[in-house]
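Section 5.1 Outputs to date
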Amino acid sequence: MSRRYALSLCVLSLTLGNASAIECPRGKPIHIHHNANRNIAVYRFDDGGPAFYESKMSIDADGAPDAYHPKNSPKSGWGRDYLANAGFGRNCNVIVCKTEKHPEKGYFKTEEGPYAGYYVSASSLKDSSVEDRGDYRRYVDAARVPYIAIPGSAAKKMGAQTGDLAYVVNMNNGERSPAIFADIGTEKTLGEGSIGLAEALKFKNATAYEGGVSANVLFVVFPDTRSDPAWPRKIEDIEEKAEAAFEAWGGVGRVRACYPRAAKMDGEQ
């Protein structure tokens, strides 16, 4: 046997050994979330650490300065999501009311600039240094920032707060992206991310109007990773810190151990 061939076998053996060493000791779910048409199990490994779950991913436009417009519709070219999805006329949860909790008294609109005429749309994560509730710059732009939304009850079980980091893998095509937890979602939906996240994950339809995927998206949430202040935070910092947390969790090898049918991911042999 040649020395080169023997060395190749040694390297192959080490590679396979390292791959087989990655396991998925997830045990029982820490939370079962009752989505509209499917229960979603949230796990954490036996030794603690990040929470993770596999689900669909619907698309969130909240916080984008051009998310909602009086003429919103997919064909009009105005806005990014239906006004009805924002609770328009019913509540102040998404579009910012001039008087809190009183939608009948009107909503803020941006008065000038490229987003003039659009309603001001809020994300749960905010820049507290911008005191004007009617200033779109106070909120996280869903079109630009890859973020996830989690219902309040599920976030509590995970030990997560807005501003914590996350990592999302589209197991349908192998694309993956760092993210930040920036919005408290509706209780009926666990599995939601921003337009920016959908684009990073190469969704065929990345619009909030009709986009999303029906299954096989992995969300990994890293509690206690928010910065101070939690927002604003540079995209580069989100990417660097979330990528490091994902690798510490086990990276693509851990994904493969837990979800063997996932599409091939960048970084796999």
